[in-house]
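General statements about sequence and structure are easier to judge against a single worked case. No coordinates are needed to read the tokens, only the vocabulary itself. The sequence in question and its structure tokens are set out directly beneath this paragraph.
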Amino acid sequence: MASIFAELARLAEMSTVERKLRDYGFRAIAGTDEVGRGSLAGPVVAAAVVLEADSAVLGVHDSKQLTLMDRQTLCRMILREARAVAIGVIEPHVIDRINILQASKTAMREAVDNLTVRPDILLLDAVIVESLDMPQVPLIAGDRRSLSIAAASIIAKVYRDMLMESYHEIYPQYDFRSNRGYGTDNHWIALGKCGPSPIHRRSFLGASQSLLF
């Protein structure tokens, strides 16, 4: 019983920003977050989530603090209980063209634009999306301070992991199922042997590319 109360207290703390915004009259509060910024391969994926005012999905946390099974379970709960959830995906060739920061912001904009509920205000993890015409609140370590951002981080992570699982079936030599496109030792070894796949970010290989090929 004590652990349940502790979890409810943690969730209440993570909902502080949302409660204050509701006191100011905001009703459709969206959180957005992205995943895949540091990956060598695959897209950057963002999610946007509008939670109900009384939402208390036990266990919601920064996706990096959760196990794979917990993320999948919580993803299903969020999809079932949220007012609206949407995804934005920016592919590797676009990342190479516009850079990863702009690609991340574009993914977040797409996620927000895809919501079936138009947000009154947007909570983000330490950035502003200039192309979105709405009030925005950037929070340092937002995925640990805002329930809405944490929920978005879970949705984005689960969605991108599923994408990388599907890419593993096409390009098994890179072991995307395990590394999710990030630069593990085995991934770099595979790049040295096989070269980049169509979903690798050429701009991320940098100076090492000349050594690989």
About this structure: The chain has a mean pLDDT of 93. The beta strands are 29-35, 44-50, 84-90, 121-124, 136-138.
